[in-house]
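To: structure subgroup
Subject: Chain for Friday's discussion

All,

I'm putting the inputs and outputs inline so they're searchable in the archive.
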Amino acid sequence: MAVKFKVPIRDKRRAAWVSLIAVFGLLLLKAAAGWYTHSLGIWAEAGQSGVDLFTTAFTLISIVIASRPADADHPFGHEKFENFAAFVQAAILLGTGFWIAAHAIHRLIEGKTLQFVPWPAFAVMVISIVVAGWRSHELKIAAHIHGSDALEADALNFTTDIWTSSGVLLGLILTVLSRMPGLAWLNRADAFAALGVSLVMAGLAIRLGRKTAGVLLDEAPRQLMTELRRQVGEVPGMLGYERLRLRRAGNRYFVDLRLAVPRTLTLERARQVRDEAAARVERMLPGADVVVDTVPRQPGRADLFEQIRAVAQSRNLGVHEISVYRLDQGLHAEFHLEVPEAMPLRRAHDLVSEIETEIRHQAPQLRRILTHIEPQEALVTSAAAVNRDAMRRHIEELAHTVPEVMDCHDIQLKTLSGHLELSCHCSFPDSTPVGRVHELTTRLESELKRAYPELMKVTIHTEPVSDNQR
């Protein structure tokens, strides 16, 4: 899709003003030539220029109105007035084509022919072709830069002038040739030229009307919608999109997206998904007004762990230490639920019961659910470092007794709320599976607590041994 650049509105007005002056000059020339020659083809051209004068003036008015900012009555702005102006131009162009065709057919039926073609008629048609070509080229460039349907319609009018003036010029030439012996059958070329003008006008009017009607009726271009779906569908972290709506007003697009995301996604991650989707749309449609909403949904293959987290997070509660195991031919689940520490036990127990009921509803295969209630740590507490070099050395020795532990470092001992706590880093071979690492660290934690019963908490950070070799 072509990128649209923002150019000052006065440049659009200038393009419309120059076209208005040009078409007024052509109208005077063609009317004078038609009156002088009585050529139906030239009169048809003069009639088309009269229509062009009106539509170009209407284009100028539509550009002025479309430049107005959004207000209470037009919250999406006034840009769509340009599309409306282009549709009106197409309707007028089509009506004029029918009028010219009716007169051409009437002349053919009556058998009237053009008797005299002075040389100024040829000059007028040549001038018309040159001016129309110049304005068509300039207006097409302006319409592309501004994304303006009104200017595009004006360019189409001048493009029509090129073909119709060429047809009339050919009709005049053939009329002159009809005076030669054996070519009398060419004396109706002027009427046929006028009929050709009307057909060209009708075809171009229908094409323009179809395009602008689609915009006015909020028709979404298929190719653009397909590309938008592809771009948005590749946003990491989303399950899919539930709504993608696109509408256009003037050269501006409005996009409304609703994305489905996993219900366990954090608010921050959901915001990142929205921002990424909006950025992708804006790269395709610069200057677009993009609204993105996210709705939580359960993934198609959500496991028990994810379901338990989702239920807890729907109440803005933290959950950890989730374990699911099979016992007595049934599934059992246990987890720790964090609730505000000031919450009364009665309220906390009722809340846990509600959560367990919801989990059972979503995972009926669970035979038993056991919830351990824990207070949320809402405050930052003070800790005191403990210097026990002999204990540190002993901890390193114990760590080396566990298979596959390469080293133990950054050992820290501290007291927190009167309890002794330990944290350390242990390195393992890079290829060790995470499940095996967890099994070994659990074993090490048991060995440490057996050696030092006063340890209230042990935190072991695991890392690949390659990190310590850099």
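Points worth raising on Friday:
The first strand starts at residue 240 and ends at 249.
Residues 383-469 form a domain with the Alpha-Beta Plaits fold (CATH 3.30.70.1350).

D.
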